[in-house]
UniProtKB/TrEMBL annotation:
Entry coiled-coil feature ranges: none
Start and end residues of each stretch annotated as Disordered: 1-28
Organism the protein comes from: Cardamine amara subsp. amara
One Pfam family recorded for the sequence: Auxin_inducible
InterPro entries reported in the protein's UniProt record: SAUR_fam
Stretches with biased composition (Basic and acidic residues): 1-12
Protein name: Auxin-responsive protein SAUR15
């Protein structure tokens, strides 16, 4: 079995020269949304399928994010999840395996 996770895509952020704002190096595919995971100094961008929103585990993580960060204030309208990258990758692999088993 391959370790490759098909449903998760990592994209480097590029910083705009004049504004200091970051922009994605690619567009979000239809049926997916963007979340950021990691530390305040080093957030990594992940594109995940919207079907993850049905998962109680993912919903809990979103609730925790809302409690910890609020929805828009702290990170300029980004969805930032309060966990480290390796934990998030494990969650994505678990949710992906659940999809395949049903």
């Amino acid at each position: 079995m391959s370790n490759k996770v098909i449903d998760m895509h990592f994209h480097e952020e590029e910083e705009e020269e004049n504004t200091g704002e970051s922009r994605s190096s690619s567009r979000t595919p239809r049926g997916h949304f963007v979340v950021y995971v990691g530390t305040k100094k080093k957030l990594e961008r992940f594109v995940v399928p919207t079907r993850f929103l049905k998962s109680p585990l993912f919903q809990k993580l979103l609730e925790k994010a809302a409690e910890e960060f609020g929805y828009a204030e702290a990170y300029r309208n980004k969805i930032v999840l309060p966990c480290d990258v390796s934990t998030f990758q494990s969650l994505v692999m678990f949710l992906t395996s659940q999809d395949k088993s049903h």
